[in-house]
Each structure stands twice: as C-alpha cells, then as structure tokens.
Amino acid sequence: MKNQIKSTTFMFLLFSFVFLTGCSMKASALTPGKTTLTGEIDKIHELVLRTYHSIHGHPELGKKEFNTQKLIIKELKELGYTEFIASTLTPTAVITILDTKKPGPVIALRSEMDARPLAGGGKEPESHSPRSLIPGVMHNCGHDVHASILLGAAGILIKNTHVLSGKIVFIFQPAEEIKGGADDIVNEGLLKKLGIQKMFAQHSAGGTPVGTVSISPGYTLAGSNYFTLNVKGKQSHAAMPSEGSDVPLASAHLIQGLSYLPARRIDITNRPVIISVSNVSTTAGALNVLPPDATIKGTIRAFEDLTEAPAKGKSIKKIIDNYLSGASAAHDVTSEFSIRKGAPPTYNNPELYNSVVKKLGDAWPGVLDTTPYRGMFSEDFSYYTREVPCLYFGLGIRKGNLGTKGVHSVDFTIHPDALKHGLRLMTLIAQIATRGDVLLK
Ligand SMILES: [Zn+2]
Ligand SMILES: [Zn+2]
C-alpha cells in the first residue's frame, strides 16, 4: 500500500514535472530572445542595491566580516546555492560553486568584503547615502559594491546555466586591505583544491565614468613594500644643536633624499618606483630637547623585487642602503633600514586578455578602455595572478557629482548605476571565459 501511494505520487510528480517543464521550454522556444541580459540585470537589481546599502551601512574590517558573511550566505541560499567551501585561514570568506555539469573550465570571480578604518575614528560625511552607521569604519574602497555585484551575478548565472559551461567559483574574499586575504586563500591551497584555472575581478575606479570599463594587459598595478628607518644620534639641548646630532633635522634630510632617489638614482622609465614616507615619530618629550632617535616609516611601490638586481644596475634595496650609509654619516647619525614585503605586482595575463577582451568589447555597450596603464597602487588580487591566468578590470563609478573621488578618501562615493554595469561585466566574463561566446546579452 505504501509503495503504491509512493508510486502514484511519483507518477503525479513526474507528470507535473514533464508537463510544467515542457510548458516552460515551449514558452521560451516560442519567444526566442525574450531573456536578455538587461532584463536579468533589471530583475536582480533590487537585491543588489539592497545588499549594497546594507553592507555599506554596516562596514566591517578585514578578518572580522562576520555579518557581511552571514548576509551574503543568506542571500546566496535564497538564490539556490546550497554548498559553501569553508576556509581555515580566511574563516569569514564566502566561497560557493555553480556547477553547470557541462565540460568546461573552472573559473573564479572574486570580490572583496572588508572596509577600512577612518583616521581618528572619524565618521562618513552625513551627505552620503548610503552612509556608514559604524563610527571609524567605512567602505571607501568599494568592496561593498564589488560584493553586491558578485552576489547579483551569482543570481543571474544560476538561472541561466545554459549560457555557461564548466564551473564558476564565486569568491567573496575577506581582508583585502590588510594582510591575510588573497594570500591566505592561496596559501591554504584553495585554488588548487577547487581546480581554478582562471580568475577575474573588478575594482571601482573613482573618476572613471559609469559605463566605462578599463583593462590593460601585463603588469598593471605595482607591488607594495613597507619600510622602517630607525635613525639614531646624540641628544642635545635644542638651544645647542652643535653639541648633538640634531636627529630631527638629519631625518628631514634623509626623508628628502629617499624621496628623490627614484628620480635621480633609478631608471624610472623602465623601473617605475615610488618611495613615500608616511609616518615620522621621535621619542621627543620637551620642545627644548633634540631627541636621540627617530623612526621613519613608509611604502615603496615598484614592479620588481626590491632585493633583486636587474641585468644592469643595482637592486633598489642596494641603492637605498648606499644612499643611507653616506647621508647618515654626513649628518652624524646612524640608520637602520628594513623592508617588509606587501602584495606583489598585479599581472593581467596577456593570453587571457587576448582571448577575453575582444569578445567583451563586442558585447559591451559602453566604453571598453584598453589604454595601457600602470598604477602605483597595489591590490592583493595580485597573489592570484601569480598562480593562474587572471584579469583585473576597472569599473567606472562616476556620474553627476557621485564617484568623483578616488578610493580610500572619506569623500569616496559611487553612482548606483555602476552596479548594473558591474553586473553586466561579471555575467559577460563568465560566459566568455567558460564558453568562449556570449549567449545572454
Ligand atoms: Zn583599498
Ligand atoms: Zn579595494
């Protein structure tokens, strides 16, 4: 009896399935081209906008993206994603896979999730909408934008697997702004474990008009390095600098000298380098004392390893060391210089560029800017670019008086129309990178 009920129920369900599926297939066959990318973007836009507002209003710093993670998982589940890949080193990451069950490559689309601290615990300007509700923390690098877009792209693609093949891995990555984001995901071996063969990402580009997307092949963003220079000398009364080393004045000379080095000691046409001092401190107490030490910190941006010498010339580290030993002696101080490596340079794989960008240009309704570009910013997406062929796109966010400022500014905003363009970019790339053509346009 039980079996009979079961089998009757099964037959009914099977009939309903065939009937309903047949119906919907017939309907779409009768109305070819009814599903358009613009239509799909319009349908998901409300979710993307709502997610953007929510994440922007509740920014979280790197490695602490707990609520952002919860929100993204909740929405992904509602879109039909059921399995999430846990990461030990980046426990706040959200990683899920769309398996089309068709042969094809495994590609990954990546967004970040983390916000940034505001200097002095400041607040996001009241004129902004959406606006951070958390004092001292703000999404002023657009990671809320990228995460919301990736969520929307996951929603469009899961409904349209007929325009894809292979697998799409969605990586919502924590901690781009601090160490332990992309580098931890790579170090954990997740790219290898998931068989990822190509990766793509986009980043808000302040000042670039909405509708414009930019991409440049080869090395496009510099590697970052951080340095500390400890200067020591003889303390004296400020009224008698001749009795000591005048460490503050010596430090001022060293800062100037360091900043000039790229322009005068390095062939910057072929070896772009920036040395910037961003923090100076001394153990000074009273204003009538010249202190015996100073600490100078900053960043060095370059496309090369600072300790490796090119075929002709010296390594950047060697050039700095040479300068500091001479200049320190001239100013009667000693100095100790050390470098900590940050993210490597970001590399847009030329073969992948050639296979994707022409097709993207054919399908892109706005401006696809392929002007060669090298920026001295750095980005931890670079860690992926050392592992598999990758492309990193710039997304225009400026319209009217929104999106005019660069990232990391407290005045950073985006025009919400940028969200739709980011969605289009991700869904077009997913098709081109897995199938080689664009069906949903
Ligand atoms: Zn940033
Ligand atoms: Zn960023």
CATH architecture of the largest domain: 3-Layer(aba) Sandwich
Quickly count the helices. Answer: 11
Task: Supply the number of structural domains.
Answer: 2
Terminal-residue CA separation:
52 Å
What's the helical proportion of residues? 25-40%
Q: State the CATH class of the largest domain.
A: Alpha Beta
Secondary structure class reads alpha/beta
Helix-strand string? HHHEEEEHEHHEEEEEHEEEHEEHEHEH
Total number of beta strands: 17
| Average predicted confidence as pLDDT | 93
Major beta sheet, strand line-up: 1-5-2-6-17-7-16
* Subunit organisation of the chains: single chain
Poorly predicted runs are 1-31
Topology at a glance:
Blueprint: H1 2-30, H2 37-57, H3 66-79, E1 94-99, E2 106-112, E3 116-117, E4 137-138, H4 143-159, E5 167-173, H5 182-187, H6 190-193, E6 198-209, E7 212-214, E8 218-221, E9 223-232, E10 236-237, H7 247-265, E11 273-282, E12 289-290, E13 293-302, H8 316-330, E14 334-341, E15 346-348, H9 350-363, E16 367-369, H10 382-385, E17 390-398, H11 417-434
Parallel strand pairs: 2-5, 2-6, 6-17, 7-16
Antiparallel strand pairs: 1-5, 3-4, 7-17, 8-15, 9-13, 9-14, 10-12, 11-13
Helix pairs in contact: 2-4, 2-11, 3-4, 4-11, 7-8, 9-11
Bound molecules: zinc ion (ZN) (2 copies).
One zinc ion binds at residues 112, 141, 143, 176, 203, 407.
What does this structure look like?
The protein is an alpha/beta fold and 441 residues long. The chain folds into 2 domains: 37-221 and 345-434, Zn peptidases (Aminopeptidase, 3-Layer(aba) Sandwich); 223-341, Alpha-Beta Plaits. The chain is 37% helix and 23% strand. It is built from 11 helices and 17 strands. The chain has helices at residues 2-30, 37-57, 66-79, 143-159, 182-187, 190-193, 247-265, 316-330, 350-363, 382-385, 417-434; strands spanning 94-99, 106-112, 116-117, 137-138, 167-173, 198-209, 212-214, 218-221, 223-232, 236-237, 273-282, 289-290, 293-302, 334-341, 346-348, 367-369, 390-398. Strands 1-5-2-6-17-7-16 form a 7-stranded mixed sheet. The chain has a 4-stranded antiparallel sheet with strand order 11-13-9-14, covered by helices on one side. It has a two-stranded antiparallel ribbon with strand order 3-4. Helix 2 packs across helix 11, helix 3 runs parallel beside helix 4 and helix 7 (247-265) runs antiparallel to helix 8. It is elongated and about 85 Å long. The model is unreliable at 1-31 (pLDDT under 50). The structure holds zinc ion (ZN) (2 copies).
